[in-house]
Amino acid sequence: MRLLLVVNSFASSVTARNTVVVHQVLSQGHDVQIVETSRRGHATRFAQDAASRGVDVVVAFGGDGTLNEIAAGIADSSTALAVLPGGSTNVFARSIGLPNDPIAAARLLVLALKEGHIRRVGLGMVNGRYFCFHTGVGFDAAVVREVEKRASVKRWMGHPLFIYAALRTWFSRYDRRHPHFSVEAPGRAPALTDGYFTVVLNASPYTYLGNRPLDLSPYATLDRGLVAITFRSLRALPFLGALARTLRGRPIEASETVDEHHDLAELCIESTRPFPYQVDGDYLGETRRLRFQHRPEVMDLVFPLTGAPPDRGSGPGRRPAHL
User: Fold this and answer.
1) pLDDT digits (tens, 9 = 90+) for 61-113
2) What whole-number distance in Å separates Cα of residue 123 and Cα of residue 199?
3) CA 60 to CA 53: how far, in whole Å?
4) Among the residues of the chain, which ranges form H helices?
5) What is the DSSP string of 218-235?
């Protein structure tokens, strides 16, 4: 098979040594070309070119941001996506059953490719941009913004930096007294006008704290519509109570301060004032309006051989013709 290995050498877990070893592992029985990204959007252009040339699989070796860019480049094509963990958290790679060690993950991918372990999955889209697992609006985007202000130390600090950024944002960088936006799901309940923090999920978990996944909803899968969870208050007690619930492995429940919709085809978040948002862990700035759509069965994804490719009710998977 023809593979393109796209490497983000600035990602937290990517080194010259493990890049060489990953390349060697993937080259066992496959024709592998390797390229390195050097700026934002670079991986998307590599992926688009690969899809236009009929490359079988594009392998993303970097963080979740690199993965997002590659997915955007190959969506709606017959080129498949394979994922290797190279970032600090690697939410998507771990969510589909890959280990956090990129070399071990590469060996599993080789086995998966041999067995044709590939299935068509859905993606989310926000303002015309695809996302693989979630978009965060409001508070968590403000946290990501604080992290990216310290990008030079992110590689070395990892999770402690995120904890520091979350505490700093909570106490002094985000208004927790006044709502920031409204949330409307067409055909559902009336629009909410008191949104402080919304997570729109295409997959689960939302993120990891160490080795512990934060699974916010059982409805967030690659085979169903989007899930939107909105916090209507950032008062400490109910918010920390919801966090504690997810840490115990229980999904968030709707309440007076939390709203939840699932199996959404579309969603709109807007405000008269700009609010921050992030996509798959990348901070994208502030906006006054976000329009979400679910795009079912839009991308081929390589699943590791830790079980059958998940199929939770959207119909049978499709094996690409080249496999």
Assistant:
1) 999 999 999 999 999 999 999 999 999 899 999 999 999 999 999 999 999 99
2) 15
3) 17
4) 16-26, 42-52, 64-74, 91-95, 102-115, 139-148, 151-157, 159-168, 236-247
5) TT--TTS-EEEEEES---
14 Cβ neighbours under 8 A, 6+ residues apart:
7, 8, 61, 62, 86, 102
Confidence category of residue 155, pLDDT binned at 50, 70, 90:
low
Query: Mind spelling out the 3-state secondary structure of 64-115?
Result: HHHHHHHHHHHCCCCCEEEEEECCCCCHHHHHCCCCCCHHHHHHHHHHHHHH
Alpha-carbon distances, residue 261 vs 89, 198, 217, 266 (angstroms):
26, 11, 10, 11
Kindly give the pairing relationship between strand 31-36 and strand 80-85. unpaired
- pLDDT digit string, tens, across residues 234-255: 999 999 999 999 989 999 999 9
What's the rounded Cα separation, in Å, for the pair 60 and 83? Answer: 5
Contact 316, 308 (CB under 8 A): no
Half-sphere exposure of 13 (CA within 13 A, CB side): 22
Residue with tokens 């934060």: 214
Lookup: tokens for 201: 């999920």
* Tokens coding 23: 């390349």
Go through the chain and tell me how many residues it has.
Answer: 323
Tell me the pairing of strands 282-302 and 192-195: unpaired
Confidence at 42, pLDDT banded by 50, 70, 90: very high
Residue position matching structure tokens 């998507």: 92
pTM of the full structure:
0.91
